């Protein structure tokens, strides 16, 4: 697809130079149309045409394709935390077990694991050094009592990416489970749960997937599905959800696939929108999306450096991502963020006292140049 065609699918481009996808992204036009379509259908004919649950299955298939999983391994969540909690509360932990993570994680990927301390499970947070957590330090933190490693594919603060293929190999070799918080990567960078040996993954839809809040994906490796105890029991997780003679069934006759994590009905409005955005990403091709994001962020980093700004995002081949964090000793970043928005309609974020830009595949090189031009020299 040509850039102009892609940009037409993001109406935000008419109003803003939006480079803040690591926060809450604008919805794509197809997602917005799917939401409106859902609302119209539901208001005019309820579910009498019976299409929407079929849509959910179609979206499940597309989501599975995006991460190279089988559809039976995927279900929908309302946010990243929900999927994290499924695993944190579903593994049969033993007192003295530990979980390894990094000291850079967004709190969503910390508290659910930290809460396990009440059950005698220790959370080890490996320290960062120069904006990354060295791989060897993570490896060294894994000991005989480590049951799981949990990590963000891309860190929220400076965008550093972990080499998931290498980490997946390590976890497999050590017999340790691997959980990935993929919200800062999915939709911008390819993630392949098979080749990366990922056991669990959770990602909200409202960032790089350009879907609304309240949507997301959860993946659980096929062989592990029966070992994770669902923390939310309802009727949709049952093999016979609409069977009313309860004397015939017990509470543990759960689906053999990822639907065992579903309790009741879905957020179908959100799922329709999420599906439309995933379809667009698959149509463009996630490899192509990645190429565009790389090109735009390279251009941005080059421009920032030429103006004397300090870039905090590692940019090596295995560490770069769609997030570029930068700062200057001379300028008040908060005032500058507001100035960019008010004067130029350029949207970036301020995180940890630095500016953070996160352009997506539909941004143009002109928009990147506008941002660079709007920034003062350091
Ligand atoms: C790495 C990471 N995980 C999770 C979240 C958000 O979690 P949730 O989708 O549960 O709101 C964010 C949001 O900034 C994030 O950057």
Can you put this structure into words, describing what you see?
The protein is of the alpha/beta class and 378 residues long. It contains 11 helices and 13 strands. The strands form 3 sheets. Strands 2-8-7-6-5-3-4 form a 7-stranded mixed β-sheet, with helices on both faces. Strands 9-10-13-12 form a 4-stranded antiparallel β-sheet, with helices on one face. The chain has a two-stranded parallel ribbon with strand order 1-11. The protein is globular and about 75 Å long. The relative contact order is 0.17. The site of pyridoxal-5'-phosphate has 12 residues, from helix 4.
Strand content: 5-15%
Alpha-carbon distance between the termini? 38 Å
Uncertain stretches: none
Q: Could you say which overall geometry the principal axes of the C-alpha atoms support?
A: globular
The hetero molecules present are:
pyridoxal-5'-phosphate
User: What string gives the helices and strands in order?
Assistant: HEHHEHEHEHEHEEEHHEEHEEEH
Radius of gyration: 21 Å
Continuous helix count: 11
Give descriptors for this structure:
binds pyridoxal-5'-phosphate, alpha/beta, 4-stranded antiparallel sheet, 34% helix, single chain, 378 residues
Helices and strands in order:
Blueprint (H helix, E strand, L loop, with lengths): L2 H5 L9 E2 L10 H17 L6 H16 L6 E3 L3 H9 L9 E5 L8 H4 L7 E5 L8 H7 L4 E7 L11 H11 L2 E5 L18 E5 L11 E5 L47 H17 L1 H21 L3 E2 L12 E4 L5 H12 L1 E2 L1 E3 L2 E4 L7 H10 L4
Parallel strand pairs: 1-11, 3-4, 3-5, 5-6, 6-7
Antiparallel strand pairs: 2-8, 7-8, 9-10, 10-13, 12-13
Helix pairs in contact: 2-8, 3-8, 8-9, 9-11
The structure holds pyridoxal-5'-phosphate.
């Amino acid at each position: 697809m040509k850039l102009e065609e892609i940009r037409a699918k993001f109406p935000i481009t008419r109003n803003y130079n939006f480079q803040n996808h690591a926060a809450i992204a604008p919805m794509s036009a197809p997602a917005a149309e799917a939401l409106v379509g859902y609302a119209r259908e539901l208001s005019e004919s309820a579910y009498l045409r019976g299409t929407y649950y079929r849509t959910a299955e179609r979206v499940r298939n597309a989501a599975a394709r995006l991460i190279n999983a089988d559809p039976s391994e995927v279900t929908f969540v309302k946010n990243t935390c929900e999927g994290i909690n499924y695993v944190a509360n579903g593994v049969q932990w033993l007192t003295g077990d530990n979980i390894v993570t990094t000291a850079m994680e967004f709190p969503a990927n910390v508290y659910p694991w930290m809460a396990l301390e009440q059950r005698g499970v220790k959370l080890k947070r490996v320290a960062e050094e120069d904006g990354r957590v060295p791989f060897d330090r993570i490896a060294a933190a894994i000991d005989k009592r480590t049951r799981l490693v949990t990590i963000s594919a891309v860190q929220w603060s400076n965008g550093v990416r972990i080499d998931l293929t290498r980490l997946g190999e390590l976890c497999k070799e050590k017999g340790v489970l691997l959980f990935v918080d993929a919200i800062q990567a999915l939709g911008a960078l390819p993630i392949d749960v098979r080749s990366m040996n990922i056991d669990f993954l959770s990602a909200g839809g409202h960032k790089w997937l350009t879907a609304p809040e309240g949507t997301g994906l959860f993946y659980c490796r096929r062989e592990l599905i029966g070992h994770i105890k669902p923390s939310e029991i309802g009727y949709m997780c049952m093999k016979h959800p609409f069977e009313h003679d309860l004397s015939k069934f017990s509470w543990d006759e759960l689906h053999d696939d990822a639907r065992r994590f579903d309790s009741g009905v879905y957020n179908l409005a959100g799922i329709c929108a999420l599906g439309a955005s995933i379809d667009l990403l698959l149509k463009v091709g996630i490899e192509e999306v990645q190429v565009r994001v790389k090109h735009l962020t390279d251009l941005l980093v080059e421009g920032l450096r030429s103006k004397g700004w300090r870039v905090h995002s590692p940019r090596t081949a295995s560490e770069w991502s769609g997030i570029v964090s930068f700062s200057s000793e001379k300028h008040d970043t908060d005032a500058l963020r507001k100035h960019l928005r008010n004067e130029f309609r350029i949207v970036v974020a301020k995180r940890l006292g630095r500016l953070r830009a996160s352009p997506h595949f539909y941004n143009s090189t002109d928009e990147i140049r506008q941002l660079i031009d709007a920034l003062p020299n350091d």
